[in-house]
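Whiteboard transcription, Tuesday session. T.W. wrote the structure tokens on the left side:
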């Protein structure tokens, strides 16, 4: 676990940042890249300079925001307490009158039947009940006032990565070259990734299981952090990884490979290259996996008359395709995290009510 915000001055590492950014895949970081507290080094080793520590880190600022908002009361609870205060004198007066006329039991009955007394008990219990119901449904409410404001919301804004998509991508296309079949290519890639746990490896292994492929035994596995993996079977030397990894290993890349990789990046997909012995055998294209409940949620929101938006840091084309697949009305792409709050403010200025920002921190 990284405990400070800073910049890498030596080494390379694969860092899980989903606690802060929502990005499902670990980010490969090298010299000159920023790193943040509360993120996790999945693999590798780095040295870094300290730029912010303690309460100055991004993670600490998020915690401060949560503490400031967690103590807000529902306005209905506050109104209930005001009613309780207003009705207290008349209740005491009625109790005092009942005591000589009807006795002690009657006076106590009058006091404990007070509207204000019941309001003080019912309001917090009602709030706790609502929060329990939402918690069982996997919904976190950080400000109780949100329950009251929901009826006024007319626009819902989704972050893309980690909110509309799952952590693990899925294999959408297999490219085989130099006489290899798609089945052979997938078998080699799955064998190499068999003991890896990152999302790309799990996606390749899931595809191999779906195809019911039999994987060969591997020997002498060697993982290059941020680049790829090299393993040896009884007959072949298999390399699986990025174009940079292939270049490091002396595997020549053609112009067609570069064009295919560029096309994948435009679509928001990733391309994993597979080499057998000393030549390129093919590539596996992976695309984000949409959450299965996302289309139903969007349809339900539209049926309620709400508008929907995506605000994403991804390129325009993958964001547009995601919006099109889910039927979301509008989208903003290439949006930095610090600018997402400005986009919400812009929607408010255009006449929509605050909206609901899902799956992203706004600092």
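and on the right, the sequence the group agreed on:
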């Amino acid at each position: 676990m990284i405990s400070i915000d800073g910049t890498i001055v030596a080494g390379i590492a694969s860092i899980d940042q989903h606690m802060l950014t929502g990005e499902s895949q670990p980010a490969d970081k090298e010299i000159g890249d920023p790193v943040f507290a509360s993120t996790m080094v999945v693999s590798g080793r780095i040295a870094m300079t300290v730029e912010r520590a303690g309460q100055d880190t991004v993670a600490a600022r998020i915690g401060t925001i949560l503490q400031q908002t967690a103590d807000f009361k529902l306005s209905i609870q506050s109104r209930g307490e005001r009613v309780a205060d207003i009705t207290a004198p008349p209740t005491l007066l009625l109790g005092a009158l009942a005591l000589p006329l009807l006795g002690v039991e009657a006076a106590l009955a009058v006091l404990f039947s007070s509207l204000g007394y019941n309001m003080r008990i019912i309001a917090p219990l009602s709030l706790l009940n609502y929060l329990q119901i939402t918690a069982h449904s996997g919904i976190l409410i950080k400000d109780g006032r949100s329950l009251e404001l929901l009826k006024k919301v007319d626009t819902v804004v989704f972050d893309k990565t980690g909110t509309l998509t799952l952590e693990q991508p899925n294999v959408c296309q297999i490219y085989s070259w130099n006489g290899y079949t798609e089945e052979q290519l997938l078998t080699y890639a799955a064998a190499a990734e068999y003991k890896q746990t990152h999302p790309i490896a799990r996606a390749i292994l899931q595809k191999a299981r779906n195809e019911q492929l039999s994987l060969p035994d591997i020997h002498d596995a060697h993982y290059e952090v941020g680049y790829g993996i090299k393993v040896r079977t009884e007959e072949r030397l298999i390399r699986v990884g990025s174009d940079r990894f292939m270049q490091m290993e002396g595997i020549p890349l053609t112009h067609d490979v570069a064009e295919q990789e560029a096309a994948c990046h435009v679509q928001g997909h990733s391309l994993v290259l597979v080499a057998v012995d000393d030549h390129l055998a093919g590539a596996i294209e992976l695309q984000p996996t949409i959450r299965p409940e996302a289309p139903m949620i969007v349809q339900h929101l539209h049926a309620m008359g709400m508008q929907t938006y995506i605000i994403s840091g991804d390129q325009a084309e993958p964001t547009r395709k995601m919006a099109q697949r889910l039927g979301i009305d509008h989208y903003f792409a290439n949006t930095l995290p610090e600018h997402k709050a400005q986009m919400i403010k812009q929607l408010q200025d255009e006449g929509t009510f605050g909206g609901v920002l899902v799956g992203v921190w706004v600092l």
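Someone added at the bottom: Residues 174 and 284 are 5 Å apart (CA to CA).
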